[in-house]
What does this fold into?
Amino acid sequence: MAQIVIGIGTSHSPQLSIRAKDWAYLLKKDETDPRLDYPGLLKRAKPGIQSELGEEKFRQRDEACLKAISHLGDALRKANADMVVIFGDDQHEQFGDDNMPTFAIYHGKSIPVVRDSGVRPAGWKDAERNGWAETADEYANEDDLANHLIRALNDEEFDIARCNRLRKEIGVGHAFSFLYRRLVPGSKIPMVPVMVNTYYPPNQPTPKRCYGFGQAVRRAIESWQTDKRVALVASGGLSHVVIDEEIDQMTIDGLKNKKPEVLFRLPRERLDGGTSEILNWVALAGAMESRELKYLEYVTTYRSPAATGCGMGFAYWS
It folds into this structure.
């Protein structure tokens, strides 16, 4: 039977690829982002927010994130996995509102990675791209496992959408290309993308459904008739673009103390935008519920007086 050898949770925020000296690009974006009420956020920002800002604070937080992502990459390499299954969200990269599945698995033969999809505005996009490792144009998809997961999860009564082609101009979504760009640069380890609709109502799964989904993924992998070693990754989160430390700490409590009931109580109305990617971590928690949490680092990378930034999370179970 296949063996799950490690579970990794990691933020994939653009801020993780942009060095502290260039965080001003993100501040400029936040001030003009039509999705944000920046003046309103300024009025509601937590007291003492200025203590979170400044060149030295930015440098310290940036260095902590670089150290943490390097630690996760080392752990993944040492696990000697044959492939990686990634819980990630699709942000209209493959699916649109005309067809948005709750859960989908890509089971094509290969995974295209496009260096610059052209979907981000100029400025901070360039700074982010400069932080990426060089990647190949294509990587292997572990389609045998993908097909096994689709069958097994349907047998467990999860309605799994499937696709065997990715949009040529986009390639695999950023939640998944992060594996090669930042987590294990230079690696060519095969992947299975598992797409969870964390972002778009009205069919986002509940935290409880995500936890159960992760449990089912674990059972499916462990029923696969092979001696392959499998790594699981939750990509995204924690809270952003506006940091919500209360939600982050609630999530961390559920993860550290093996309290799924705490994760189930995560308020869905606050799991919006990038913060919704916490649901990928909840799925991973379900898959790794019997394993020991060996490492967890949480870094609040505030970048503006409006409390924008990312609650960066880094963890692994084995």
